[in-house]
Fold this sequence. Notes:
- The complex is a heterodimer.
- Chain A is of the alpha/beta class.
- Chain A contains eleven helices and 13 strands.
- In chain A, strands 1, 2, 3, 4, 6, 9, 10, 11 and 13 form a nine-stranded mixed β-sheet that branches. A two-stranded parallel sheet of chain A has the order 5-12. In chain A, strands 7-8 form a two-stranded antiparallel sheet.
- In chain A, helix 1 packs antiparallel against helix 2.
- By secondary structure, chain B is mainly alpha-helical.
Amino acid sequence: MYxxxxxxxxYEDLIIDLYTDIGTKNESxxxxxxxxxxxxLAAMMLLSGVAFAEGKLSIQGSTSVTPLMEKLVxxxxxxSVECEVQGTGSSAGIKAAIEGTADLGMSSRNLKExxxxxxxxxxxxxxxxAVVVNPENSVKSLTKEQVSQVFKGEIVNxxxxxxxxxxxxxxxxxxxxxTRDAFEELMELTTEKDGKKLSLVDFAYPIVASGxxxxxxxxxxKKGAIGYLSLGSVDDTLVAAKIDDVExxxxxxxNNTYAIARPFIVVTKGAPRADVQALIDFILGAEGQxxxxxNHYITMG
Amino acid sequence: MNRTSQKAIEALxxxxxxxxxxxxxxxxxxxLMKGIPALREIGIWEFVSGDLWMPSADxxxxxxxxxxxxxxxxxxxxxxxxxxxxxxxxLTQLAxxxxxxxxxxVIELLAAIPSVVYGFFGLALIVPTIDKWSGGYGGNSLxxxxxxxxxxxxxxxxxxxxxxxKAVPEAYKDASLALGxxxxxxxxxVMLPAAKTGVFTAIVLGIxxxxxxxxxxxxxxxxxxxxxxxxxxxxxxxxxxxxxxxxNIAIEMGYATGLHEGxxxxxxxxxxxxxxxxxxxxxxxxxxxxxxx
Lengths: 301, 293
């Protein structure tokens, strides 16, 4: 499974070995040797990439599911299966699964009807979406209605939410993000126009962060910022606001009191291959679900 | 033997020239091949005049990005050009030789700093500073983009202007000074007009750098795919987050598939048109200057 990484490490050892050899030779010869060695190594790495591309398990999709999937894959006992996890976004992952370029797609939003016709979804965990504010912000509790108004741009100052007189800085996500799709759906932040579902958040001029990490960085550094991100990604640089007086915790999502939650889904096209099925079984099994729980996601039991 | 090696070297030169042409050809072919079908499907007019970019709703309008790209570029040139030209005049006309040489090194270094470093600097210093002054809103904005880009185009405009100022015959300066004009007056009224072709070239090159800049503007501009709302907000719209054409491609390419991906290539096509216009302008300036001489 860690074949690529392992082999790279051994290349590095090889470089060190070769350099040690070169050290004993004279200067100009050594330089030429170095160049040659570098070229050969570069070629080997390129070739190894191609060689290893066969027979590996490609997992693509949601950047929210990716950190969890990486941990699950790392713990997967069958080391003969090499897995490659790529965070490309939910929509991209679903597309890749439909086209067959990914063996397993990851999504952090529910599938659309057209997608369901082609794919089999399996929920591997639930994840809350936390509404996060800067730790210095005095507002740490909001109603669902308030959150919705804030992200529509109807409330633009923290004083209207019981905080300081300071402008609200909205942090949203880029188009294609599963977290954004799920958040907009759960918070009713879309409107129908000419049969097209428009995002109302864009009309409120949010800063667009690409990825959970960038949301975190923005909220952590801007005192008046508010954003949303995967509950599993919340750390002590920001505060997850209470929604309708309910704290965003895995327990509260499980007992249905914290309402902003969405499923983490893996999708396969048709009947999965044996190695893919083994991975899914592992994820849904006791050990996999323990990893889910350990990383602050909600288990499926 | 000598002749064979001569031929071989000529062939090598030719090959190198062909490689650069092939590189350009490949890029053009690839962008157009991916971009044009998307343009057809969306409709060219809808694409360049639509003011909503919402790929999830299949809405692909890049007018906000075109406007932002133009505004941030014009803003950067408006801020950067006077500073650059005055700096170039100082370095070539007024500064002692030692200082001028030292400044030359500094300017070259400024030009060599990678754009991501400029962006990071902007994110760490300029954005929080604007946030502080504006009471918490407006750090990631058009304004921050203008400031960063103005800094980035300084070295281009200064060095190209300085080169053309140095090329002005010394006799012009001597004659002006002998007639009793002050050194600043000479710089401004004699040397600068004499070097104007070079200065215009410098400005256009600066525009070219600003339009194509990606990394630095992504980091500081906030990247909302909306037009700065000057109609309702007036100048305060300078402090709204907005997205450039380059930013649109870079931000979403990792997530894009299908028509969305095609629309990003179509964005690149529009960007390409911009670059061609800039290069034609440059060519026109130089041709005009050539015919005058």
